[in-house]
Amino acid sequence: MKRLKRVLLIDDYEADNFMHEMLFEEMGCADEIVVKLNGREALDYLTTPQQGQLPRPDLICLDINMPVMNGWEFLAAYEALDEDMRGGVVLMMLTTSLNPDDKSLADSNEAISDFVSKPLTREALGELLSKHFPDLEV
Fold it and tell me: What is the arithmetic mean of pLDDT over 48-54?
């Protein structure tokens, strides 16, 4: 069965992280789920080799409103990274934001594959995985 190698959840709200982690585990679609509480932690993670290799998750779920470095600040820094640190990653903006400007900004940014309201449901995650990873078995 084909699964995602690694999913990176970037969100300061631990309850959402816990719920989303459990959802990925229940669906059995990821080998590893990594949680970072803000954009700075996530950038440090993405740019620090582990066992000689950069982590390169298949999927990043990014919240907008976080302390230290918010989702938009993370995105600007992420886009400036070398291709080998970010290539081939599906980046999903996962947020409670009701601000229509956030949706417009996300839609106009090529790095963002999807803009989704949280919390994720099993149905929404299944649809997103089918859309962005059609060879995945969920």
Answer: 89
Tell me whether residue 137 is in a domain.
no
As separate numbers, helices (DSSP H) first and strands (DSSP E) second, the chain gives 6, 5
Angle, CA 59 vertex, CA 23 and CA 15 arms, to 5°: 40
Residue 115 located in a structural domain: yes
Tell whether 138 is covered by a domain.
no
CA dist 33 and 74 (Å) reads 19
Q: Which residue has the tokens 């298949």?
A: 58
Answer for the pair 100, 121: CB distance below 8 angstroms, yes or no: no
pTM: 0.93
CATH number of the domain at 94, please. 3.40.50.2300
**Domain total in the chain:** 1
